[in-house]
Amino acid sequence: MALPLHKQASSIVYYIALLALISLFNSCSCSEYKRLNYSDAPSSWGPASVTWYGAPTGAGPDDNGGGCGFKNVNLPPFSSMTACGNPTIFKSGKGCGACYQVKCTSHPACSGKPSTITITDACLDGVCLDAPVHFDMSGTSFGSMAQPGREDELRHAGKLQIQYTRVPCNYPGLNIAFHVEEGSNPVYFAILIEYEDGDGDLASVDLMEGAGPTAGTWTPMRESWGAIWRLDSDHALQGPFSIRLSTLTSGKTLVASNVIPADWQPLSTYRSIVNYSN
């Protein structure tokens, strides 16, 4: 039986409204997805546990280094705001250089305000395996979660439950640097890579020689340990060297052309003119 005209009109209006609502919902979902994109804003907060090690106001390791190979992490730009990551965070070294925000509300001395830390070391056993995500922080970074003047009180708590989120790294005024490691020679070349804006982590590194039999060809390097990558060559490497980096988190690629000169020396640092924020 046919519907009366006024009911047909009501049905048409209903379906038009329904389609408009669906369209609006889809539009909002798309906008929300973009807003939460890691590269644009911090991702959602999750639970983690934290401890601290080293001197109460130090950078963690006694030598101001750590399992990522970074040096002088007590000095800018790290400024002791560092942490070890458990296996979930350290990722067999590929998590080195990643940046996080942490905050605590589980202790009376907590400020509830976020602090930004960089992964510079590893904690792969003991208390660091008691939770899916654990940070063993420097004394300085642990204390930074406290209300002013209550840093020691918070450190005396020992172990805390906190919230954490991944954030882009930011090194104002710095471009990516390559430190040629001790022991490097014409057939063994190792570099420490640091100060990558954005993701901060690396999935792969390739080297291109400027001369010799493989000039102009990208050769994969392999992770030696932490943030140190190496190339064992079957011939004497000839510079200058270009380095291609691909990040772990978002897969972004960047090339530092001819960044390491032909007369490179071990224990020297060569600074590029590029970064992921450029």
Q: Care to describe what's here?
A:
With 278 residues, the chain is of the alpha+beta class. The chain has two domains: 46-167, Barwin-like endoglucanases, CATH 2.40.40; 177-271, Sandwich (Immunoglobulin-like). It is built from four helices and 15 strands. It has a six-stranded mixed beta barrel with strand order 1-5-2-4-3-6. A five-stranded antiparallel β-sheet has the order 11-12-8-7-15, with no helix packed on it. A hairpin with a 7-residue loop joins β7 and β8. It is elongated, with a radius of gyration of 25 Å. It starts with a helix and ends in a 7-residue tail after the last strand. Pfam families: DPBB_1 (PF03330), Expansin_C (PF01357). It is found in: Secreted.
